[in-house]
Amino acid sequence: MSVFLSFFYETSTPVYGGAKNTISFIPNSSIKQGNTSNGFIINIPNHSGTHIDFPRHFSDEGKSCSDYPPSFWVFEKVGFLASSIEEVPEKIKDLPGDIELLILKTGFGAKRSEEVYWSAQPVIPASFADLFKSAFPQLRVFGFDLISLTSKLDRPEGKKAQISFLIENDILILEDMDLQYLTKSPSKVIITPILIKDADGSPCTVIAF
User: Fold this and answer.
1) Exposed end of the chain (fewer CB within 10 Å): N or C?
2) Is the pTM of this model over 0.90?
3) DSSP annotation of 152
4) What is the DSSP string of 190-206?
5) CA atoms within 13 A on the CB side of 182
6) Can you tell me the distance from the alpha carbon of 168 to that of 34, in angstroms, rounded to the nearest whole number?
7) DSSP letter string, 49-99
């Protein structure tokens, strides 16, 4: 059995900071209007919806979307936590030390249709990056059901966290995941970012098996 861990894009997709009218799908061909086919132009910020952050997001010299081979995006050692932020340091002790992808389900994703989802999400401490890298030396991606690693409640801490994860520990960030149906560690996860040359972040499809 497989399940999407990423959301479908809609014009109502929440954007960090609550920006409005940033996502659109503009028809440029319509059978109903006499064209031979249907088609539309997609306008989406690269850091919206379920998306991956690359080191380039916080460093001009950091790796971008172009710097990762196909094999990087296949994860067969996945750790899953259903936990509040506060309980994470204790609960990660129960996970295998060889995981490559860590998924955190805070439950805050249930508020995705509310303003609080982007305005007052829980704060993820920057110290988690060192903690995770020490516990899981092979960790490549950290994903969660929050709109961003940076909470509006503490933006300085968020910037420190981004630098610590992306630059200092080389752990990519997978934001705004759809974890409503995930209850245990998947046996395999595939992440497929849109291949945008030199991008600092990219929307992606995430499939768990």
Assistant:
1) N
2) yes
3) T
4) EEEE---TT-SEEEEEE
5) 35
6) 55
7) SSEEE-GGGT-TTS--GGG--GGGGEESSEEEEE--TTTHHHHGGGS-TT-
The tens digit of pLDDT for each residue in 149-207 reads 999 999 999 999 999 999 999 999 999 999 999 999 999 999 999 999 999 999 999 99
Q: Mean pLDDT across the stretch 38-60? A: 98
Judged by DSSP in three states, 164 sits in helix
Q: DSSP string of 13-51?
A: ---GGG--S--EEEEEE-GGGT-SS-EEEEE--TTSSSE
Tokens describing residue 193: 């970012």
Transcribe 48-60 into DSSP letters: SSSEEE-GGGT-T
Using one digit for the tens of pLDDT, what is the confidence trace for 90-100? 999 999 999 99
What is the dihedral angle through the alpha carbons of 181, 184, 185, 187, rounded to the nearest 10 degrees? -80
Measured between alpha carbons, how far is 102 from 169 in angstroms, rounded to an integer? 14
